[in-house]
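Methods, example record. To illustrate the input and output format used throughout this study, we show the complete record for RNA polymerase sigma-70 region 4 domain-containing protein. The sequence lines were provided to the predictor; the line carrying structure tokens was produced by it.
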Amino acid sequence: MLESRFNRPPTDKELAAALNIKVEGLNQLRIQMTYFPLLSLHHIQKGEKGTDIDGS
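The corresponding predicted structure is encoded as:
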């Protein structure tokens, strides 16, 4: 995959940079999948109890 872009095997630095970008993207996705649904559920549950989201 990387070889086609560089026309040679990638160096360790290039490989590390590419992997780092992928890992950060996955972590970002994991954070969104983990926290945003929880926040949404929390707000929905609070709303159903008749309490405003801000707690008033």
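Annotations derived from this record:
Helices lie at 2-6, 12-48.
The radius of gyration is 21 Å.
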